[in-house]
Write a structure and sequence with these properties.
Layout (H helix, E strand, L loop, with lengths): L1 H13 L12 H7 L8 H20 L4 H4 L7 H30 L18 H8 L5 H33 L17 H7 L8 H4 L2 H36 L17 H25 L12 H17 L1
GO molecular function, one term: amino acid transmembrane transporter activity
Organism: Fusarium xylarioides
Pfam families: AA_permease (PF00324)
Length: 316
């Protein structure tokens, strides 16, 4: 509801309904323009700016797979997860697309207030637009909403990480003690391990807030992209396995001269190295080999699915 309110408020500002009664329209699409450049001018700068924006877009869309991970908590995951996934797609597309479109109308990309490092929401383009239109109460409201959203997002990330650790432990790929729960049923060891690096956020106290935030954006975004790549590769192999076994299937700017620093390189690429090292250790320790897609065990999975379906029909 809050995002919808911001979208409507931004539209009112753009059409001249704010206290200053200044109609913006598509003014900022003409001057300074709809698209910024990054590092270089011209088409090359536009190309680099696109990928820079893509990094932040991937950060914003990260962890949408929580819908599937939370399937173990639902009563009927084979029906609930597809429905929830479709709703998640439409909601995210609507909220992100509309909010970015409105922001592009009411604040130019070269606004000096966008580059100011602050500890509040005053750097938000919505806050900038509302303040300049004569509405001063919005920053406090956005600060409160951002705090609650951050708590919710952090809880979701801890849930994903702890559930993944438990799954790895149950499969024998992580220490067994991650399966232990306290008297409330909370897997405290898995949750504790998931929170182990959380104190790093206090780096913002002794360093420039925007710089430290960009470090975390780089680290978490690359980690999320690696996860998406793994999910995609897994699905492609599953898809190929279905085809081969006859199942019915119907139904990067840090390398540019002057921008290559140790901090930028490490925060952008450290997760790739970590993933490669962990993958190599896993392969060496278990001495596992890549299974040909024609030999992937699918019959047992489909048998369990049929049994679950019969059980659900019997319960109904």
């Amino acid at each position: 509801m809050f995002i919808i309110g911001l979208i409507i408020g931004g539209l009112v500002i753009d059409l001249g309904g704010a206290p200053n009664h200044e109609r913006l329209g598509f003014r900022y699409w003409i001057h300074p323009g709809a698209f910024n450049t990054y590092i270089k001018e011209g088409s090359a700068g536009g190309f680099l700016a696109f990928w820079k924006a893509m990094l932040h877009a991937a950060f914003s869309y990260g962890n949408i797979q929580v819908v599937a991970i939370s399937g173990s908590e639902t009563k009927n995951p084979r029906k609930v997860i597809p429905a929830a996934t479709k709703k998640t797609f439409y909601r995210i597309f609507f909220f992100y697309f509309c909010s970015i479109f409105i922001v592009d109308l009411i604040v130019p990309y070269n606004d000096p207030a966008l580059g100011v490092s602050t500890e509040t929401a005053s750097q938000s383009p919505f806050v900038i637009a509302f303040q300049r239109s004569g509405v001063s109460v919005v920053p406090s409201i956005i600060n409160a909403v951002v705090c609650t959203s951050a708590i919710s997002s952090g809880s979701a990330c801890i849930f994903i990480a702890s559930r993944t650790l438990i799954g790895l432990s149950c499969d024998g790929h992580a220490p067994q003690f991650f399966q232990r729960c306290n008297r409330f049923g909370t897997p405290h060891y898995a949750v504790g391990m998931s929170c182990l690096l959380s104190p790093l956020v206090y780096l913002t106290v002794v360093n420039n807030t925007s710089v430290v935030f960009s470090w975390f954006v780089n680290i978490t975004t690359v980690a999320g992209l690696i996860g998406w790549v793994v999910i995609q590769v897994t699905y492609l192999r599953f898809f190929t396995g279905l085809k081969k076994q006859g199942y019915n299937r119907e139904g990067f700017d840090v390398f540019v001269k002057g921008h290559c620093t140790a901090q930028r390189f490490i925060t952008c690429f450290i997760n790739i190295a970590i993933f490669a090292i962990l993958y190599a250790i896993f392969k060496i320790r278990l001495r596992s080999k890549l299974i040909p897609t024609s030999e992937i065990e699918l019959s047992e999975e489909f048998r369990s699915i049929r049994e679950e379906k019969h059980q659900e029909d019997a319960n109904q």
